[in-house]
Design a protein that fits this description.
By secondary structure, this protein is α/β, with parallel strands linked by helices. The chain has five domains: 1-64, no CATH class; 85-226, Alpha-D-Glucose-1,6-Bisphosphate, subunit A, domain 3 (Alpha-D-Glucose-1,6-Bisphosphate, Chain A, domain 3, 3-Layer(aba) Sandwich); 242-341, 3-Layer(aba) Sandwich (Alpha-D-Glucose-1,6-Bisphosphate, Chain A, domain 3); 346-467, Alpha-D-Glucose-1,6-Bisphosphate, subunit A, domain 3 (Alpha-D-Glucose-1,6-Bisphosphate, Chain A, domain 3, 3-Layer(aba) Sandwich), CATH 3.40.120; 469-607, TATA-Binding Protein (2-Layer Sandwich), CATH 3.30.310.50. Helix content is 42%, strand content 20%. The chain contains 19 helices and 23 strands. The strands form four sheets. Strands 16, 17, 18, 19, 20, 21, 22 and 23 form an eight-stranded antiparallel β-sheet that branches. It has a six-stranded mixed β-sheet with strand order 1-5-4-2-3-6, with helices on both faces. It has a five-stranded mixed β-sheet with strand order 8-7-9-10-11, with helices on both faces. A hairpin with a 3-residue loop joins β14 (413-419) and β15. It is globular, with a radius of gyration of 25 Å.
Length: 610
């Protein structure tokens, strides 16, 4: 009787919160389910505590939606309860939904296998073991890494072992508060349509999560720990992608408390690089990322690279490298006459494209060859590939899974792939970006340039003079929670229907809408259909060749991202002196474009009450 009265009081409090608009209807329905159904009994005490405390803003954030599969899988803030948080329940539902979907695809009697890996984040080990236990309870034989491993090794292991699927527990470069569940198909690539939608539908349909204890699964042989042979096979496969025998380079490196100590370091040592210096304070695996400024282990940021750049300067290194926690991305910094400079992912992509293609050209191995990039990655890759007579597949949506899918399906010789957010791949040993192969290619490129008495910075300036100056930068507007999601939708709608007419003194000439597959001439209003990647993405093309802005909601974080690109053809660059002036002018004009774009964005949000 007392329990029934308590339940009535809790539901009455929820009803009032929903009526007053303190929680959304979606959150209200999901919280009621967690209150009423036996399946959620072990999570109920904390839920009850929050309702009794009146923590409805928090509860709305935790339950207003169900975490979808974005460009990098399921990723979000960890919290013990909630459909919009990473916790035991949402991990369990993800694993159960994956198992249910696999059975629907392959049949109930099919023999299915899975590989499960995890990074160094807090709770990653527990979430990975629970995933293995759920998969095992559904009759899926599961291979589990005994310690943290890089995401690309999971992709390799799925292919190496011939598994049906793979899962990695990771939130890449996100803050320590986050974690995630990323699915891979039997080809070692992240899931794409229709599988991602199918898995999500199965996840949403989960009523109960089947599970078995880890000890029982290990005793029954349904879960098995992987041995070192997979690690050895992976390292050997990465080293085999080398295109140069140059090895004389001094390298500073940091794993940023992540799994790079299991991939980047072994690969560089195995490849023959001996003069390696590691940031001691960031060597130890630790999901709190304590020695990284602001605890944000994102090698795209200068703060995350500070320690390794300082070490590189102290040791007179040729290059500084840092990998993110799951080691699928690699950050690069190089010495310049003005001091150490962090290269962008686009700059590294261009340098490595030239490194790989020139090496293959010398071998006479460019027959029916192609490279791959995403739409927002530098067009300098295409200019270099054109020079070597190599095809570029370069209009892909953001997310390396689209690159992997292209490599899986495309005829011809795959040479190299890159995306602007520090992701690189060479070879077929895996179907995801890999910080280890990126580090290997950068290291041997540096060593080869050292033979010629050049630095990587010198080489980049030569490439600009030869192929044109490409200036790319990005910025994000963070829009968190339910209100943020509404503002994101409003902003994308405004970009499509009422874009800015002029930015930085440059007129916006065309609007490319990748969701509607149309291009609109803003001057005349003429609309044409175009074949472009299917994505929630808009391009504003300015009235100067090669100048454009791309806007898209992030698939993994609560933000909208803008990519600004500018271009000066090589005919307008007469040498490094002229290049310096071109760089200065471009940066100034792009800065004006960025500032006016920001004002437009904030005005749209303000008009929506944000």
């Amino acid at each position: 009787m007392a329990e029934a009265k308590t339940r009535e009081a809790l539901e009455a409090a929820l009803d009032a919160a929903a009526t007053e608009g303190r929680i959304s209807q979606g959150a209200y329905q999901r919280i009621l389910r967690w209150l009423r159904e036996p399946e959620f009994e072990r999570y109920r005490p904390l839920l009850v505590q929050h309702i009794q405390n009146g923590d409805f803003e928090l509860l709305d954030d935790l339950f207003w939606t169900v975490i979808p599969f974005g460009t990098g899988g399921r990723r979000g803030r960890m919290y013990p309860i909630g459909t919009n948080a990473i916790n035991e329940r949402t991990i369990g539902e993800s694993a159960q939904g994956l198992a249910d979907y696999l059975r629907s695809v392959y049949g109930q009697g099919a023999t299915l296998t899975a590989v499960v890996a995890y990074d160094t984040r807090q709770n990653s080990r527990e979430f990975a073991q629970y995933t293995a236990c759920v998969l095992a309870a559904n009759g899926i034989r599961t291979f589990l890494f005994e310690g943290p491993r890089p995401t690309p090794e999971l992709s390799f292991a799925v292919r190496y072992l011939g598994a049906t699927t793979g899962v990695v527990i990771s939130a890449s470069h996100n803050p320590p508060s986050d974690n995630g569940f990323k699915c891979y198909w039997g080809n070692g690539a992240q899931v794409i349509p229709p599988h991602d939608r199918g898995i999500l539908e199965c996840v949403q349909a989960v009523q109960s999560v089947r599970e078995v204890s880890l000890d029982q699964a290990l005793n029954n042989g349904v879960v098995q720990f992987l041995d070192e042979s997979v690690d050895q096979g992976y390292v050997a496969a990465v080293v085999a992608e080398s295109v140069s025998d140059a090895r004389e380079a001094r390298i500073a490196y940091s794993p940023l408390h992540g799994t790079g100590y299991q991939s980047v370091l072994p690969v560089l040592f195995a490849a023959g690089f001996k003069d390696l210096h590691v940031v001691d304070s960031q060597r130890v695996p630790d999901g709190r990322f304590p020695a990284v400024p602001n605890n944000i282990p994102n090698p795209e940021t200068r703060t995350a690279m500070e320690a390794v750049i300082n070490l590189a300067a102290e040791t007179n290194s040729d290059v500084a490298l840092a990998s993110d926690p799951d080691a699928d991305r690699i950050g690069v910094a190089v010495p310049t006459p003005q001091g150490w400079t962090q290269l962008t992912g686009n700059q590294v992509a261009a340098i490595l494209t030239y490194h790989v293609l020139s090496a293959m050209h010398k071998r006479g191995a460019l027959n029916n060859a192609y490279i791959v990039k995403t739409y927002v990655t530098t067009e300098m890759m295409r200019a270099i590939a054109d020079h070597f007579g190599v095809r570029t597949i370069g209009d892909l949506p953001v997310g390396f899974k689209w690159i992997a899918d292209t490599v899986e399906r495309e005829d011809g010789q795959f040479l190299f792939a890159a995306e602007e957010s520090l992701g690189y791949l060479k070879g077929h040993y895996c179907r995801d970006k890999d910080g280890a192969v990126g580090a290997l290619l950068v290291a041997e490129c540096v060593a080869e340039l050292r033979r010629q008495g050049k630095s990587m910075w010198d080489h980049l300036q030569e490439l600009y003079c030869r192929f044109g100056y490409f200036h790319e930068e990005a910025y994000s507007e963070v829009l968190e929670g339910r209100k943020g999601a509404e503002n994101m939708q409003r902003l994308m709608r405004s970009l499509r229907t009422a874009p800015p007419e002029v930015l930085g003194g440059l007129r916006v000439g065309r609007l490319w809408d990748f969701k509607e597959h149309t291009v609109r001439e803003l001057g005349t209003g003429k609309v044409s259909s175009v074949e472009r990647p299917d994505a929630d993405m808009v391009t504003l093309e300015l009235d100067r060749p090669g100048w454009r802005i791309v806007g898209r909601p992030s698939g993994t974080e609560p933000k909208i991202k803008f990519y600004l690109s500018a271009y000066v053809p090589p005919g307008e660059i007469s040498g490094t002196g002229a290049l310096a002036e071109v760089r200065r002018r471009c940066a100034g004009l792009v800065g004006q474009v960025r500032d006016e774009l920001r004002r437009y964005v904030r005005q749209v949000i303000a008009e929506g009450g944000g």
